[in-house]
Design the sequence.
């Protein structure tokens, strides 16, 4: 066995971060509870959705990730398209993350949803994309998380009105969440972007469920004809999927999943436990909410959830019954 090959903490941390960082994240719960807790309007958070996927781009380094960020549910109209790279920086005793800005490219639209078609990234080199000097993020391990930040007032550029501004960009990464705070100031202290109270955007890791819906909701082995809508993809962080029923007249049926992360108790003297919740409702033809049919809930770490209301049966799962491991 070879000896004398000790690495550094930063070299170890970069391998851990490379496993932790990829995923889909959403702050649906924060948006909901901002309202329920009465946070004043100007301090409330807009909804953010982020996708991070590792990609094979050797020209950028060993650990390269595609990032797509969207606001307010407009997943196909992202406001951020980027590449992140991670590398150990032993001088800084940190993991250095470089940010390459794809949204500044003339053909930026071709990078939308690149995580679904990685070929659009295959010919990229660092010379093809924008990187801002001083805007690297340095990640350091803390208790139970990694915290990342730019060097103070190092990431600078011209605001659209000609003002000199700098970014105060900080992140926190756990196995379950990615919190971000992206503030912009000028040297006089005027704030241009970010939450007015400096509160982090609390994006939680999402799981992708697949659902099917049967109408009517046949059960008990009864031989009754039904129609099935299958392969309905939905996130458990406020995802919503809908389909048009075969009734006369037809209805648009919506399925929604939330992994509710309670930020206060809803009963005095009792602790409100988090829950994975499925909601069933109708969407009117004009797109507005229609009838609410009901909901069901279970443990937040559950890998499947179903409901049968008679006229409809819905089953959502991470692993289908066809792929499930038989148990004794």
Sequence:
């Amino acid at each position: 066995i070879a000896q004398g090959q000790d690495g550094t903490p930063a070299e170890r941390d970069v391998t851990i971060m490379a496993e932790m960082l990829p995923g889909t994240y959403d702050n649906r719960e924060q948006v909901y509870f901002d309202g329920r807790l009465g946070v004043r309007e100007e301090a409330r958070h807009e909804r953010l959705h982020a996708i991070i996927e590792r990609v094979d781009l050797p020209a950028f380094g060993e650990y390269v990730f595609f990032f797509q960020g969207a606001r307010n549910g407009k997943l196909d109209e992202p406001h951020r398209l980027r590449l992140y790279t991670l590398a150990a920086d032993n001088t800084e005793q940190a993991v250095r993350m470089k940010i390459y800005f794809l949204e500044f490219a003339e053909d930026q639209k071709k990078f939308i949803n690149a995580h679904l078609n990685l070929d659009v990234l295959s010919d990229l080199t660092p010379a093809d994309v924008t990187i801002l000097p001083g805007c690297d993020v340095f990640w350091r391990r803390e208790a139970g998380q990694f915290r990342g930040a730019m060097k103070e007032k190092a990431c600078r550029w011209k605001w659209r009105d000609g003002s000199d501004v700098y970014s105060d960009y900080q992140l926190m990464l756990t196995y379950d969440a990615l919190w971000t705070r992206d503030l912009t100031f000028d040297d006089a202290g005027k704030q241009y972007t970010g939450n007015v109270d400096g509160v982090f955007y609390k994006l939680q890791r999402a799981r992708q469920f697949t659902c099917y819906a049967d109408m009517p909701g046949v059960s008990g082995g009864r031989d009754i004809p039904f129609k099935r809508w299958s392969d309905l993809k939905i996130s458990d962080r406020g995802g919503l999927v809908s389909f048009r029923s075969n009734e006369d007249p037809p209805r648009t049926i919506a399925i929604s999943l939330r992994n509710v992360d309670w930020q206060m108790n809803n009963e005095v003297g009792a602790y409100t436990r988090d829950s994975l919740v499925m909601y069933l409702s109708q969407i009117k033809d004009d797109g507005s909410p229609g009838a609410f049919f009901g909901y069901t809930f279970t443990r937040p770490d559950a890998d499947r959830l179903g409901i049968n209301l008679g006229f409809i049966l819905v089953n959502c799962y991470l692993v289908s019954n066809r792929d499930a491991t038989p148990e004794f």
Remarks:
- Residues 47 and 180 are 12 Å apart (CA to CA).
